[in-house]
Each structure stands twice: as structure tokens, then as C-alpha cells.
């Protein structure tokens, strides 16, 4: 009998059934991949498994017992959510061992020194470089993500560890560290539920697999019996060729002219950055997390202040430090942080998209509801945004659909330069392909596209040229089709290259 | 799945507070024979106007994600300033009143600029500026009311227009304009965007600082307007004007569906909230509750109203999420 099982599990919300008749069987000592597109019901299932939500139908059994009768059984399940949920103003050690009664650090008095010395061993095991006394707000994002996993594992009752996209902000070395930790848990008779949209990771770490689609289980079994295409087919219900490339092929008029010229740009965490963006290309930016790529883009967009350097757009000097001017002059930046910098969570899909349409919808008599509805409906259709109605609050949409809404909103302003910062972070395979297709189409219409991505595969598939950055400096510029992965990875890790003729 | 009738109230919080307002109105009418008399209704609406104007200003700030604890003392300061300009300096009311409104704008400008430039939390900053404005009031008046206010302005406080109290008419006009701006203009929608997510608003090219400063100025003007109307109603400029305009407007806004964290609610809902509080206070008086107990009774009712709202919303949201 498996340690964690569900039978006919279902969860209904008003108007929708988010989960229906799901049987799941998780065995100790194995890594179980939970696969499915955004909105397939993975998060709903995880909420039921962790006891944060209750099923409408069906049953859960943990160690052969029913947690509905004994909720303390849920302590066997540790969950690491995709978003960072640490306490920024507490120390690393405190974050690690909260709540203290659960981790055996006393109910009344906490010995700080003991806390920090114990933390040091845990941090070493997870390869976290931050000091135990450091405040979490000051440590790096990869360290935070690793700390979050380490925190879950300090739960002494833990038998099942659920990891939701644990590697989304990690680079390959850190991913290896996470995988070592996962293997360690597996070998010590824990079960791991691993949720990821990265197919290579799924196949390198997973043993078993359950695939959800539209809230129902469509497949379950050993991963060894399937392959990437089989898994994608199970998740999406159709064949998607992610092996395709999405580089622009059609040549727009004025191909090869520089749209954007950046010279000697410096700002926080980067210095002396030069590059040209040409019409008709997708310019990729590769680098480690923290290499300064996002900062460069946000500076060009005017969200961060530049300390030196100049930018030209189509030969004319570009105003830095003013996002309103950047948008007016035809540039849009789509942030990696959808939640922080993108969506207006409590407002409807219509308001979220409509806010960029006032040029078309507002007159002296105010915003025309009729015009706004029509424009938003067009965008929802054009970008295939899945929502039950345009009045729904955008925070209830899946990540992929939020991203499509943001892209649709950006496109409504007809930008001449569009900067995508990690546009497919946490987004399923099918939507990824859609976003690639949108980028390609825009580039072919002559829009200058910059793609910042930590996924080498994504850059190779979409970018015409790839600029590499390492700790705030540009280390090379490569033709994507003719450069080996080794050269690119070398440049990302700081090996100086002579930029090619591009 | 049965459709949940209560869900409509969550989807449209305005409907919820409106129903609550009607219910309290009807209950009050049933409980006390004096409630529905023309005289009492005119007292209720006239009194509502002052807190209502401040509530409209405070609610606009709260939608933006800010709060201003100095609005009450701005009202008091502008009231006595208007009194002194008219009485001590002998200025015509038509010069003195606009100057006093301008003073309210200046106070709001100070709050808005400091919050924006120094990236301060408005709650903390306005505790400080409230001390300054309240202190200036005492320095100017030494705590003594200014009497002999020109009779010609009293029509704004005591007068009626078509049988409706003048301050209430002014509040309704302001409310209509603000509601239109909030719902139907880009500027108004930007308020909600900033309250939802200021970083995203800046990414959208919205001039966050400029809008924030403007709304602080607007709220200051609303407080000043309430202060002037109160002077016109009393016929004297009391230094104590505005003392009760600090917390009641915040409670009113929350009852009306505006959150303290920003991004949701409407000025109309907030005004309904103010009306609910106003009626409760009125019915307490009509019942002859001892003045010593009035604070406790009205406080308990406000806490109950807010709790009911919060609990019902959480229950229904857990169903909808």
C-alpha cells in the first residue's frame, strides 16, 4: 500500500469543477512527477494533499489513515510553494526553524546561538552560501529558493515533500544541488512530489508520473515507459513540436537597421553595456540569475536610473528614467515578475487590459464601456486568453493566461521595441509555444524584440543573436544558429570572448 | 452547484452596503417615531455632509493605498483660518473662503510631497503633520473660538436648497463628480491601478507620484471644505472643528467596501458607510442613551458591522477561490 493515496478526489468551485475523480498513489523512496498544463488542477490537488483545502468528493489516505479524522496526519506532508514565502525581515536561521515548537526549539525561550549553529549544518547540506544570521531580505534569490526547500525539510514529521517548480529561479549548478537534495530524501525513504514544466528536469529526476488535464487524471505510470513527446501529448491532448525553432524567417522592410543602440550604459549591478538591436531579429540575453540582464532592460525602459551611458532609438536620443516617456515613444517591458510588476491583481481582466487602451476608449465623456468591452474582447480572442468572463479578477487566471493578457495589453499599444524578461517562467509547454509564435510574428512585422531568458534551450530556439552577460558585463555576442552550447555557457560563466562581427 | 445569492453581494460590494443602509434606515424608522420626521432627517443629512466630505477625500486616498490622519485637523485649521481672515483681517468671505480652501490644498500638498519624495508611509507621516496643523490651530486661536462670522456665509451651513440642507447638496455634487472621475476617466482608473500594485502601475507608464500628490491635495481641500461649511453652520470658528473627522471616515470607508490596503471600493460605497454611521449615531440620541455611553454603543455597532462584512466576505471568498 502506498504511503499517500487519493481515491476519486474532486473539488468543485462555483461554476467549475477544478478537480474530478483523481486517483493518486505516492510511494516512499520514489520521486513522483505531477505533470499538467497551467490550470490543469495541480495546485488544487496540492492544496487538498496539504490540508489547506477540503475535497468536495473522494478521500485521501495518509499512511493508511484518513486525515479528515486526524488532521495531524497532514504534518507528514511538507510543501514548498513556487512563490517565495519567507519572512524577509527575519534571519536565515529563524526562517529555517519557524515554528519553533515543530522543529524542537523550545516553546518559550529560543536560544539564538544554538539556532544558528544548527542552521549552519542544514545550510551546508543544501549548499546555501548565506550566513545563518543574515536577514533573508539581503540574501540572493537562488539562496532564498533553496532555503525554502531546506525549511520544509526541517519538519521532523515529513514523509512526503511536495516541490512546486523549485528550480524556476535557479541556474544549472543550483539545480544540481536541488537534485542532490531530492536524491538524498529519496534514498532515506521519503517520497517527493515534483512539479515542473521543464521536461529535461522531469525526466532526469522523476521515477513515477501522474498527468492531469482539465482537472482529471489522464495518465499515470513509470516515466521510463514514456518520453518527452509522449508526456507533452498526455498533458496537452495534442502533439506539440517543441523541437521546432521559432526564429524569425520573413524579412521585414529595413531589415538589419539598428532600432535600438545602447552605448556604455551603466547602472546598479551592471556597467558599460553596449549592444545593438536590429529590425527583424529577436535578440537573446543569456546569463546567470543576478548577471544584471533585468537591470539593464529596466534601465533602458526607465524604471531604474542609469548612472552613465546613452541609448538611441532609430537614430534619435532616447530619454532614460521615465517609463511614461518610454511607452509613449514605443517601448514596452514585460517583467519577469508578473505578480510584482505586471498584473493589477484585484482588478478584472477587462480593467487590466483596458488600462492601456484609453487612447481608443476614452473621450471627454469618460471611458466608453462599450468600446472598452469590444477592444478587450478582441484581445482576449487574438491572444487566446482563457477566462470565464472579462469581469473575472485577473489573480484567478492561471499564470500562462495572465502572461498572455499582459502581452495582449502591451501589443495594443503597438510598440516598436518589446522586451520580454523570462516570458515563459512557470508557463506550460503549450502556452510556451504560443508565446514563441507571438514573438516570432512580431519580429517578422519589424518590431524589435529582446528576449531575456535563463533557459538556454529557449534562447537557442527563438533568438537570432544571443548576447551573454556575466556579473554586470557583456561577455559576448553570438549568432544563435552557429554557436555551440559550450561557447555560450563559457561566456555566461565569465569566460571572455571576442564578440563576433554581429 | 447551487447559485449562492450572497455571492452577488461579494461580486458587487456596493449592493451589500446599500442593502445594509436601507435595512438600518428601515429599522430606525420602525424603532423610533421621531426618526422619519422632516426635522430629524434634515439633522441627519446636514450632519452627514461634513463627515461625508472628509470620507470622500479619505476614501480616494485609501483606494490609492494611502491614508491621511491629518484630515480632521486640516478641517479645523482651515475653519479657524477662514474665521480669522474674515473677522480679524476683515476680508470679504469671497476672498477668505477660497484662501482657506487653498490652505487645505497646501496642507495636502505637503503631505503628498513628503510621502512621495521620502517614500514614507502616509500613516506615520500624517500623524506628524497632524501635530503640526493642529498645533498651528492652537497657536493662531489660543483655543478660543472666533465669533462674529459674517452672516452672509451662514446660508452654506444652515440654509436649504429646495428643502434639502445646503451642506448635503454640496456633498452630493462633490460625490457625483468624484464618482464619475473614479469610474469613467483614465485618471480614476489609475487610482485603482496604483492601489492594486504601484510597481506595475509605474511599469505601465502611470505617473504614480504626481497622481498621489494630487489626491492628497484633493483630500486636503475636502477637509477644508468640510471645515468651512461647519464654520458657516455654527456661526463661529471653533478650534475643535474636525476632532471627530479622523477615525469615522476611515471606518465609513471600510464599511463601504474600501480596504485599508488599497485598490478596491468606491467613493459612493464609502459615503453609504458614512450614512450608516450617521444614522446609528442619530438613533442612539433619539433613544436617549446617556451621552457617556454613546461612544461605547456606536463603537460596538461599528465593530459589529465591520466584522459581519469581513466574516461574510471570507466565507464566500473561500468558496470562490
Automatic annotation (TrEMBL), chain A:
<dbReference type="GO" id="GO:0005524">
    <property type="term" value="F:ATP binding"/>
</dbReference>
<keyword id="KW-0547">Nucleotide-binding</keyword>
<dbReference type="InterPro" id="IPR003439">
    <property type="entry name" value="ABC_transporter-like_ATP-bd"/>
</dbReference>
<dbReference type="InterPro" id="IPR017871">
    <property type="entry name" value="ABC_transporter-like_CS"/>
</dbReference>
<keyword id="KW-1278">Translocase</keyword>
<keyword id="KW-0677">Repeat</keyword>
<dbReference type="InterPro" id="IPR003593">
    <property type="entry name" value="AAA+_ATPase"/>
</dbReference>
<protein>
    <submittedName>
        <fullName>Sugar ABC transporter ATP-binding protein</fullName>
    </submittedName>
</protein>
<dbReference type="InterPro" id="IPR050107">
    <property type="entry name" value="ABC_carbohydrate_import_ATPase"/>
</dbReference>
<feature type="domain" description="ABC transporter">
    <location>
        <begin position="4"/>
        <end position="496"/>
    </location>
</feature>
<comment type="similarity">
    <text>Belongs to the ABC transporter superfamily.</text>
</comment>
<keyword id="KW-0762">Sugar transport</keyword>
<dbReference type="InterPro" id="IPR027417">
    <property type="entry name" value="P-loop_NTPase"/>
</dbReference>
<dbReference type="Pfam" id="PF00005">
    <property type="entry name" value="ABC_tran"/>
</dbReference>
<keyword id="KW-1003">Cell membrane</keyword>
<keyword id="KW-0067">ATP-binding</keyword>
<keyword id="KW-0472">Membrane</keyword>
<dbReference type="GO" id="GO:0016887">
    <property type="term" value="F:ATP hydrolysis activity"/>
</dbReference>
<keyword id="KW-0813">Transport</keyword>
UniProtKB/TrEMBL annotation, chain B:
<dbReference type="GO" id="GO:0005886">
    <property type="term" value="C:plasma membrane"/>
</dbReference>
<feature type="transmembrane region" description="Helical">
    <location>
        <begin position="120"/>
        <end position="140"/>
    </location>
</feature>
<feature type="transmembrane region" description="Helical">
    <location>
        <begin position="94"/>
        <end position="114"/>
    </location>
</feature>
<comment type="subunit">
    <text>The complex is composed of two ATP-binding proteins (LsrA), two transmembrane proteins (LsrC and LsrD) and a solute-binding protein (LsrB).</text>
</comment>
<feature type="transmembrane region" description="Helical">
    <location>
        <begin position="211"/>
        <end position="232"/>
    </location>
</feature>
<keyword id="KW-0472">Membrane</keyword>
<feature type="transmembrane region" description="Helical">
    <location>
        <begin position="12"/>
        <end position="31"/>
    </location>
</feature>
<comment type="function">
    <text>Part of the ABC transporter complex LsrABCD involved in autoinducer 2 (AI-2) import. Probably responsible for the translocation of the substrate across the membrane.</text>
</comment>
<keyword id="KW-1003">Cell membrane</keyword>
<dbReference type="InterPro" id="IPR001851">
    <property type="entry name" value="ABC_transp_permease"/>
</dbReference>
<dbReference type="GO" id="GO:0022857">
    <property type="term" value="F:transmembrane transporter activity"/>
</dbReference>
<feature type="transmembrane region" description="Helical">
    <location>
        <begin position="244"/>
        <end position="264"/>
    </location>
</feature>
<protein>
    <recommendedName>
        <fullName>Autoinducer 2 import system permease protein LsrC</fullName>
    </recommendedName>
</protein>
<feature type="transmembrane region" description="Helical">
    <location>
        <begin position="43"/>
        <end position="63"/>
    </location>
</feature>
<feature type="transmembrane region" description="Helical">
    <location>
        <begin position="69"/>
        <end position="87"/>
    </location>
</feature>
<keyword id="KW-0812">Transmembrane</keyword>
<keyword id="KW-0997">Cell inner membrane</keyword>
<dbReference type="Pfam" id="PF02653">
    <property type="entry name" value="BPD_transp_2"/>
</dbReference>
<keyword id="KW-0813">Transport</keyword>
<feature type="transmembrane region" description="Helical">
    <location>
        <begin position="161"/>
        <end position="183"/>
    </location>
</feature>
<keyword id="KW-1133">Transmembrane helix</keyword>
